[in-house]
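User: structure tokens for this one?
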Amino acid sequence: MGSRLSKFATIGVVAVLYVVATEPVFGEPYISVRTGLKCSACHVNRTGGGGRNDFGSAWAQTTLPMKTMSVRSRRLNDWLSVGFNFRAVGSLAVSRPESNPSSVPRTQAEISEAQVQIEGRFIDNILAFYVDQTVGPDRAFTREAFGLAEWRGKVPGFAKAGKFLLPYGWRLWDEEALIRSITGFTYATPDIGFELGIEPGPLTWSVAVTNGTQGASEGNSEKMFTSSAAVVSRHFRVGASGSYNGRTDSKTEVVGAFAGVTAGPVTVLGEADLIFDSFDDAATIDRDQFLAYIEGDVLVRKGVNIKISHGFHQPTASIRDEAINTPEDERTRTRVGLEVFPVSFVQVSGYFTRFDNAGDSDDLDRVSLEAHLHF
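Assistant:
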């Protein structure tokens, strides 16, 4: 265990120093870093993602787009508010000739996101109930449903109880980013339990205790512990996350460091994670995994953002403390895109994504167009 903790510390420190030191290099977390605001400034869920609060909705309508239209309030009355997200995607995927010479291009059109959010603010700045409901396209699914208590004072903070997204790393909208799809902390994997957080000064720190079943019924007395802490400044953010999920016959430990810096129109995000899967059954091979991610965003002008990201994944099997890895197990994912917010409520984006050994039968290049409506 000592060697693992040492490995955690080394990777975490190196990742943070690397990102902070490379400021001139080139999700929506980039917007938070670019503005110097905590996630709780704009979202009902204090750790980010999902429905926006009044400030977040107004900011998205006035400051984010190229042109501001009529500003609309989320509030239906003095205590009830609504919001939504809708995203449609069209893509063309092509296998590279060296990987699969006989392949044909694959086209796809899909609705990747359709949510309605409802916030009941029973006591202003103190007590609320929030629901984030996926309404399609395949099935209805409650992504989040929790009661939220908040308090101010010298140590402001919050407490949540219910079903919610777990506080880990950068909450990217890009669900296929390796640091999200491999670690399992995505918008599709909320969990049920309790969360406590504090946000004094530049610090934000939260701890969640949940079932560890991604929202399904609990099958044993074991629990999942997830925590994330960060120091937030006007020009940078540095943080760390950790998770432990014990089960009857196995356990998963995840630890990571993340950071972001902004200088003028350029914002850079980075994250590095280690995953340790261990099994009580001696016949089952333990597995370690390393993940890294870096993203650069350039604000070309108001409402126009260029995004470049690169992710890396290296799985390693461990047998009797001996690491076994082959280069063919490694995978990378590189993405370049243009995001345009022409008017309030609307985002139109185009991306080129390159997969290398991405777990499929061949490597893929993909061109995609997205239309995102948000309120």
